[in-house]
Design goal:
This protein is mostly helical. It has 3 helices and 2 strands, in the order H-H-H-E-E. Helix 1 runs antiparallel to helix 2.
């Protein structure tokens, strides 16, 4: 049970960061001189990965909820669902906040080919 919960938590974190990764993850490939075709292929690959992870998360979540329903009361399940929803909203808000800080212009590149950032 603990391993499933840990796996579920890890999948949740991966999914929550998925959209951010799709938007910002391409910066990892700057300097590799990818062609437009390669960039498109990388974006498609990341989107496919995100979709597969989301599907795996949904399967695990359903299995976990089913097992919990075997020993938790209806009231406990309801309270747990509310807590999970609140956590999800907090994480989404946190991810947006982190994304905004990351792209707020506090850092600039020394030169186009440099990988070192300098703080303004």
């Amino acid at each position: 049970m603990n391993i499933r919960l840990l796996t579920l938590s890890a999948l949740t974190l991966l999914l929550m960061s998925g959209s951010s990764f799709a938007q910002c993850g391409m910066s990892m490939y700057e300097g590799l001189d990818l062609t437009e075709t390669q960039k498109t292929q990388m974006q498609d690959l990341h989107e496919d990965h995100r979709t597969r992870m989301q599907a795996a998360h949904e399967v695990e979540m359903a299995a976990t909820k089913s097992k919990m329903a075997e020993f938790l009361t209806a009231e406990q399940m309801k309270a747990l669902a509310e807590r999970m929803e609140n956590r999800k909203l907090k994480m989404q808000k946190g991810n947006k906040s982190m994304h905004n800080k990351k792209h707020s212009g506090k850092y600039k590149m020394r030169n186009k080919n440099s990988t070192e950032n300098t703080k303004l």
